[in-house]
């Protein structure tokens, strides 16, 4: 079996990345494609910190552990499945972690790169009734995603597909459109 494709669902906090990733994975499976959803590796670290009563930002060693776990999981899953869908890719950890070592960044890029990035548009205030989540999402989009956008532009030019928001569906992503676009992209890769 050839190495599988890594599809990344990318966007700001609370924009529906996980929902889209899960729905896309289910649609691909239903279409007979051997697909899997890969959740974020940071969850295990956060659960351990919670049990131990540790608060605050992740330490540098914890960030590195998360990054290495995500790398190992992406590589392993790409060997087992035709398509791996994730909403927390390795490149997020690299971009957000502020790794300035060009060699490390290059090695991580080479080891595990996205084959397709689905960019989820930011929710407008009309799309969401939750002002707090919207404010948090806007803050993250402006601060963190500026770094990630520059990283994607540098390393993944031409691999980004926009998810389409459907106004008749409450502003949510048109999953039928997205599924068809991804399946067409997969066929073109063969």
UniProtKB/TrEMBL annotation:
Q: Which residues form a coiled coil?
A: none
Q: What is this protein called?
A: NadR/Ttd14 AAA domain-containing protein
Looking at the record, the residues that make up the NadR/Ttd14 AAA domain are 7-155
List, alphabetically, the InterPro entries matched: NadR/Ttd14_AAA_dom (IPR038727), P-loop_NTPase (IPR027417)
Write one Pfam family the protein is assigned to. Answer: AAA_28
Q: What is the lineage of its organism?
A: Bacteria, Pseudomonadati, Pseudomonadota, Betaproteobacteria, Neisseriales
Q: Which residues form the signal peptide?
A: none
């Amino acid at each position: 079996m050839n190495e599988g494709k890594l599809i990344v669902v990318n966007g700001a906090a609370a924009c529906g990345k996980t929902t889209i990733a899960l729905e896309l994975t289910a649609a691909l499976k239903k279409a007979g494609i051997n697909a899997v959803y890969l959740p974020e590796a940071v969850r295990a670290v956060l659960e351990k910190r919670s049990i131990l009563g540790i608060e605050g930002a992740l330490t540098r060693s914890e960030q590195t552990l998360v990054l290495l776990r995500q790398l190992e999981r992406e590589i392993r899953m790409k060997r087992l499945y035709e398509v791996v869908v994730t909403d927390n890719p390795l490149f997020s950890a690299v971009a957000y972690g502020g790794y300035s070592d060009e060699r490390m960044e290059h090695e991580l890029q080479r080891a595990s790169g996205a084959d397709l990035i689905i960019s989820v548009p930011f929710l407008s205030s009309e799309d969401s009734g939750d002002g707090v989540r919207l404010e948090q999402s806007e803050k993250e989009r402006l601060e963190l995603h500026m770094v990630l956008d520059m990283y994607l532009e540098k390393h993944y030019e031409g691999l980004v597909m926009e998810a389409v928001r459907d106004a008749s569906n409450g502003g949510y992503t048109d999953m039928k459109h997205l599924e068809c676009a991804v399946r067409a992209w997969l066929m073109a890769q063969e």
